Amino acid sequence: MNRYKKLASNTAVFAIGTFLSKLLSYLLIFLYTRILTRTEISDAEMLQLVSNLIMPVAAVGVCDALMRFTIDAGDRRKEVFSSSIAILLGGTVGFLLLSPVLLLFDALGKYVWLIVLFVVCANLQMAVSFYVRSMGYTRLYAVQGIMNTLLTILFNLLLLFVLKLGVTGFILSITLANFVVTVFLFVIMKMWRDISAQDVRRSTVKALLLYGIPMIPTTILWTLTNLSDHLIVRTFVDGGSEERVNDGLFVCSYKIPNVLTLITTVFIEAWQLSAVNDAKDGEDRAEFFERVFSGYSSVIFMAASVLTALAKHLLVVLADPKFFDAWSFIPSLMVATVFSAFSTFISSVYSVKKKSLPAFLTALAGALINISVSLLLVGSLGVQGVAVGTLVSYLSLFVIRSVIAGRYVKFNLHVPKLSVNAVILSVQAVFMILAFPKGDLLSVPVWFLVQCAFVLIVVLVNLRSILSGIRLVLGRFIRRGKSAE
Fold it and tell me: Do residues 433 and 332 touch, judged by C-beta distance below 8 A?
């Protein structure tokens, strides 16, 4: 199997697993909004946010390091896994000893034990699932994701509907699902054979920590960056009002760009394996990165253009009418999501070279730019200013990461094509925001035709790259067909 076909195959497997999991997750939303009160849902989200912030600290960042080091470990796989588990257990013990500190926060009070269980089980599940993924068992990795969601639904039905445990039932459902999946993967892969105290090496532990520790603030930064946007909207636009009308619109406006994020996440999961396994150092790796990024960027731009054109129509389907005004923030956030996707791709260079520090420093720069620009523009543009601030930060992040990544893997980004696409998409976004700011765009056929024209232009600009990518993936079959003739 050639490396392009392998990448496409892995992407397809991850796509099936991810989309099925997301589809099942919509059933959970239907369930939660009907069994839990608004206060309970708010408490549950807060507990998840706190747990997500604690998880990388409690794991000492070793989950990401485990996945990266296992990919090319070869005969040292047991050494990497054993050393990673040793670090994870040490971090978990440290977290358990320090967990009483959480009791100092009144809002967490009675839920501290739930947070502890959630963090421990989630980290264990992440470690074993990343190990499975890094060894190339892509189908099993996809299956465990679907299995996790199904188990969460089943435990929800038991703990929320039958036992009516509220927030406790919500968190326990996720925790129990993570625990069962961890046991399932551990048993089916017979992972006990890969764990031995004798295989714990000081040098490996040191290498894992040097890579993993900078990933802790990197992960936390992304969470805090998203949180800062909402705090700025609540403080400077909603004025601290408990109703948080504008922040609600801002949250809703992310529904459409998140579709693009889902697409990029699926691909990046497969790409991380290919970037390490299927390209050698030097010109071969540079060529591989260049061809894949060319096709990847073309797909992203076309998907973003289509989603922008359909944004208002999709919002009618996905959101309650009271959130309809959120459409005006979608174009800016869509462009921001495009550059976020590119930044994520560029960060794979750091992963290949096991350089996590640049990922942290660039994430820090992006976060500071986001907060600064958002605060600068929110006074004059309101929520739109925060959306533009997000766009500027991700664009800056992409540029900064591209420059630094060029020191490790120098490949052609085809800047002229990127620039043309970015200009077209930006003009499409601006036109959508300004053309009919107060009108009902759904009743203006001319408007939709203009948006279709933008989509057609983007498709034409990127058609060559897409066709080239298809030929790379199907080339083996094409050659086989010609030889048979």
Answer: yes
Is the pLDDT confidence value at 244 over 70? no
How many domains is the chain built from? 2
Verify that 292 and 366 share a domain, yes or no.
Answer: yes
Quick: pLDDT tens for 257-293. Answer: 888 888 888 888 888 888 877 656 656 788 889 989 9
Same domain, 49 and 157: yes
* Residue 39 pLDDT: 62
What domain range is 307 assigned to? 214-480
Q: Do 127 and 230 fall into the same domain?
A: no
Are 205 and 347 in contact by the 8 Å Cβ rule? The answer is no
Residue 195 and residue 220 share a domain: no
227 and 173 in one domain? no
Given a contact cutoff of 8 angstroms between Cβ atoms, the answer to whether 125 and 179 are in contact is yes
pTM assigned to the model: 0.81
How do residues 378-427 score in pLDDT, each as one tens digit? 988 888 999 999 999 999 999 999 999 988 888 889 999 999 999 999 99
Q: What is the pLDDT of residues 126-137, one digit of tens each?
A: 999 999 988 889
Clarify whether residues 153 and 179 are in a common domain: yes
| Residues 69, 27 share a domain | yes
